[in-house]
Amino acid sequence: MLGGCSATAPPASNVRPREPRVNTPAPYTDNGISVTVNGLWKDGYGRVIGIDGIATNVSGEDLQLCQITFDVIDQSRVKVSTALAVSNGLKAAQSWRFQASFTTPYAVNFSSIESGAITTIPAKGFTVGHKFNPARIDDLSPGKSTVADAKRLLGPPTSESNIADKVLLQWLYGEGAKSAHVAILFNSNAVMLQIQNRTLVGF
Q1: Strand ranges (DSSP E) for the chain?
Q2: Domain tally for the chain?
């Protein structure tokens, strides 16, 4: 009679896997905004969904809107996402604890976060960007509307960014006490995925 030998499971390890190291930008100042990145931002399940930090308005004037972007780069130096944070109003010398969320899900590895553009709208006396009707945003439908539809309804975008196999279009406008920022994500076929950000003041 042959005796069977049962396999014994290895003891569970109490050591948690270390989080991959990600290079983040050193503190910097651009367009009157001083930025310090603290690290990665996680949701309640421990998933990395963006980055967080502190931004301070050192421009000497109150701002109606402040937008900070970061480029998310993989080991091959390919941009795989953008992290975006928007503040509705930022007074002179005021600090803002921002959380910049990724515009695309964290589905690939990345090795560094690099500083992107900082866009600001002064609290008064300036007109910025191309005027558009924010109400037309509701006429766009994820999975159906296209880049052409968005441009027809909202006019030419302020910026257009290619992120891996997706495209992020942004519209920014400010005049007097009014300001509007809209960011919409499209897939490689130019079909709308989602509204990434919609910030309206005075509309």
Answers
A1: 28-30, 33-42, 48-57, 63-73, 79-90, 95-102, 112-122, 127-129, 159-163, 166-175, 178-186, 192-201
A2: 1
Residue type present at position 120: T
pLDDT in tens, 142-180: 999 999 999 999 999 988 887 778 888 988 887 766 778
Instruction: Phi first, then psi: give them for residue 151, nearest 5 degrees.
Output: -70, -35
pTM (2 d.p.): 0.62
8 found inside a domain = no
Domain that holds residue 53: 28-201
Residue 125 lies in a domain: yes
Longest dimension (CA), the chain: 94
142 CB contacts (<8 Å, ≥6 apart)? 192, 193, 194, 195
Alpha-carbon span 118 to 123, nearest angstrom? 16
Q: Angle at CA 183, nearest 5°, toward 131 and 36?
A: 110
State the sign of the Cα–Cα–Cα–Cα dihedral 96, 30, 107, 15: negative
Which of 187, 188, 155 lies closest to 170 in space, CA to CA? 155
Residue 3 domain-assigned (yes or no):
no
